[in-house]
Amino acid sequence: MKVIASSLRKGNVVELDSRLYVVLNAETFRPGKGTPTTSVDMRRISDGVKVSERWKTTDQVEKANVDERDYDFLYEDSEGFHFMQPETYEQVVVTEDVMGGNKPYVQEGMRVFLKTYEGVPIAIEVPQRITVEIMETEPVVKGQTASSSYKPATASNGLRVMVPAHIGAGTRIIINTDDDSYVERAKD
Fold first, then answer.
1. pTM of the model
2. Which residues contact residue 121 at a Cβ distance below 8 angstroms, ignoring those fewer than 6 apart?
3. Strand duo 2-4 + 13-16: pairing
4. Looking at domain 67-125, which of 3.40.630.10, 2.40.100.10, 2.40.50.140, 3.40.190.10 is its CATH number?
5. What is the pLDDT of residues 66-110, one digit of tens each?
6. Ranges for the Translation elongation factor P/YeiP central domain (predicted)?
């Protein structure tokens, strides 16, 4: 299935030169003058080689036909990350290299999209927004304005996030998994 390059997201699987690649990172650049481009970092599934490509945002890219289903995260052990398909209760183990940069986002009971090709897990897509608890933050510097100043904080999953000055330790926040950015305070 052909899709435009600007619609590619982390976790998508594309086919180039009859090989499958999983998208690790996709950024669209819109310069003031000239053609907008989408820069994509990918990992070749067959041998793990990382590749970078750049397309015009309107270029057509072949999105691979892989089996994509919801799975619930169960637990992590020495074998890898264990997921269960909620309808069939079928369990699969995802290795560390397939998890990639998604490891800190996965929480117990979380529903994710797991992509498999011929029964083998090849890519995982986590929700775009997750809720985490702030474990520690740096103190507010006197004189900072509340409107646009952010301070570094450490979340319960180990990520470093920039948060507004009013967020303190113990506060639950929602972060964007694409770029680890603060979205809002959790409403729970």
1. 0.69
2. 92, 93, 94, 95, 98, 114, 115
3. unpaired
4. 2.40.50.140
5. 888 899 999 988 888 999 999 988 888 988 878 877 888 888 888
6. 68-122
Element (H, E) at 97: helix 96-99
Q: Which CATH number fits domain 2-62: 3.40.50.2300, 2.30.30.30, 2.40.110.10, 3.30.2000.30?
A: 2.30.30.30
> Rounded to an integer, what distance in angstroms lies between the CA atom of residue 99 and that of residue 114?
10
Class level of CATH domain 129-185:
mainly beta
Burial-class residue 15 by CB neighbours within 10 Å (0-12, 13-18, 19+). middle
Q: Express each pLDDT in 123-164 by its tens digit.
A: 888 888 888 999 998 877 666 555 567 888 998 888 899 988
